[in-house]
Backbone:
């Protein structure tokens, strides 16, 4: 697209929005001085955008009929066959629909993105294919991933595989549902407030939110750079470790990746856990929203670890209860500035900017009424806060994450992991088509008390299914030291092998 000089009215409008008072002579003067900028922008426009090569052929994405998509978990199906050999040979994968797969539609749960087709593969896509995986398509997610429930996608709710009247969790709703139903072996999820772990808890899958930066986020639609995480959702701990082994490590693009420490995660499987120490986090239980049956089931899981020889003791970290509040300015103002006003990326960081997405995504401004109620609420308050108070609360919240992180680290210096419920409730009923805005919002944000704090503290966190209550899964969350996913896999694998979790 060619860049042109602004006309007088456009320049006057820009000046007014920037608080400048320009005379007609000023406008004429500034217009003349901008000619060099226009020439530079147009020179950049004519240059070739150095995007990564797309290595593997694929079929176009096709939306499956309802008969083949009973949970509404698929957005589109597309077959991409990976390398003939590799760690993931024979394994099938679904991608959360905020992950770019070149030539295949991506809508990130929002009607404002329908029709967008990426022209790049996310780094994690290439890594999966290089390892021999077969990608089967894109899984529905929540509208711009702004919901803990599974009811905000523009194409309808994703149903829980254990009870289709209930939520599959969010925002990686389709990813967890497809793994739990057995339609794929593995799936990619994204986690900014718990969106890998919450659907894993509701659906009965294993979900890992890795240490921040361990898995490259390149080619995945950002929400906010300091809380963006991508990671594996699988049926077993062993598959989760294997998938992370393929995904982890720097890619040379993602500025989230600082001093990354990678391990051979599958080597953590099958190790003895006797003598390990796990801290039950007192503040992870008994929330106002908690269901006693969920808390009890997770405490039973802790006892099962103790029976395996793990030392299990209760600890208190009071600031954990403040974690969701600290997350809020970062989550709301960060996502509004980066994901929405920043055309998906914002500015001022080294990254791979997918400009085709930035161009397409700008159109939300003319279709904002189509955004989900959960996203509208967050954007409205974030813009109000920014207008009235600037970004001081974002800044202060970010400063407080260091205090939160230090509190967890102080306990983790003496323990191998923290333990608590992944979410405080069983899978919640899906709001009906005539549900009030208040219920839609409630269902969108009522379960992130234990998950969101670790998105801002950046610790790795693993959700493992630990039993059923009334036929619905319960998730136990293990949180570890920075870059110590291996210890979580050792504990999770031992717990999983101690019996059939559905019988616990």
Residues:
């Amino acid at each position: 697209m060619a860049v042109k000089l602004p006309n007088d009215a456009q320049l006057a409008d820009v000046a007014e929005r920037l608080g400048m008072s320009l005379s007609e002579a000023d406008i004429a003067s500034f217009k003349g001085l901008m000619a060099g900028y226009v020439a530079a922008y147009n020179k950049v426009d004519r240059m070739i955008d150095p995007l990564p090569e797309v290595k593997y052929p694929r079929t176009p994405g096709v939306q499956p009929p309802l008969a083949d998509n009973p949970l509404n978990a698929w957005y589109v199906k597309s077959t991409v066959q990976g390398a003939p050999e590799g760690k993931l040979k024979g394994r099938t994968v679904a991608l959360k629909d905020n992950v770019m797969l070149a030539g295949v539609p991506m809508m990130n749960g929002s009607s404002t993105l329908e029709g967008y087709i990426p022209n790049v593969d996310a780094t994690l896509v290439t890594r999966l294919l290089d390892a021999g995986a077969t990608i089967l398509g894109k899984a529905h997610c929540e509208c711009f991933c702004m919901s803990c429930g599974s009811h905000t996608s523009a194409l309808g709710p994703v149903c829980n595989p254990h009870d289709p009247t209930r939520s599959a969790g969010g925002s990686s709703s389709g990813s967890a549902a497809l793994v739990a139903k057995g339609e794929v072996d593995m799936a990619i999820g994204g986690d900014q407030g718990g969106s890998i772990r919450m659907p894993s808890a509701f659906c009965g899958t294993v979900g890992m939110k890795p240490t921040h930066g361990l898995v490259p986020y390149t080619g995945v639609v950002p929400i906010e750079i300091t809380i963006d995480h991508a990671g594996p959702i699988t049926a077993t701990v062993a598959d989760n470790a294997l998938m992370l082994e393929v995904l982890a490590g720097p890619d040379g693009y993602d500025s989230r990746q600082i001093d990354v420490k990678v391990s051979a995660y599958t080597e953590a499987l099958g190790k003895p856990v006797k003598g390990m120490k796990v801290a039950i986090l007192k503040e992870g239980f008994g929330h106002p929203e908690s269901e006693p049956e969920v808390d009890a089931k997770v405490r039973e899981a802790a006892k099962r670890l103790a029976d395996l020889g793990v030392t299990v003791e209760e600890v208190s970290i009071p600031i954990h209860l403040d974690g969701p509040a600290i997350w809020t300015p970062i989550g709301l103002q960060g996502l509004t500035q980066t994901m929405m006003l920043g055309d998906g990326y914002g500015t001022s960081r080294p990254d791979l900017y997918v400009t085709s997405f930035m161009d397409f995504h700008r159109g939300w401004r003319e279709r904002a009424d189509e955004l989900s109620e959960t996203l509208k609420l967050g954007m409205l308050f974030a813009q109000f806060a920014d207008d009235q108070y600037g970004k001081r609360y974002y800044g202060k919240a970010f400063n407080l994450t260091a205090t939160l992180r230090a509190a967890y680290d102080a306990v983790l210096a003496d323990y191998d992991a923290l333990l608590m419920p992944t979410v405080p409730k069983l899978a919640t009923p899906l709001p009906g088509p005539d549900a009030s805005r208040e219920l839609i919002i409630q269902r969108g944000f009522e379960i992130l008390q234990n998950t969101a704090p670790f998105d801002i503290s950046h610790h790795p966190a693993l959700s493992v299914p630990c039993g059923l209550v009334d036929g619905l899964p319960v998730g136990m969350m293990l949180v570890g030291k920075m870059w110590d996913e291996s210890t979580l896999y050792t504990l999770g694998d031992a717990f999983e092998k101690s019996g059939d979790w559905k019988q616990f």
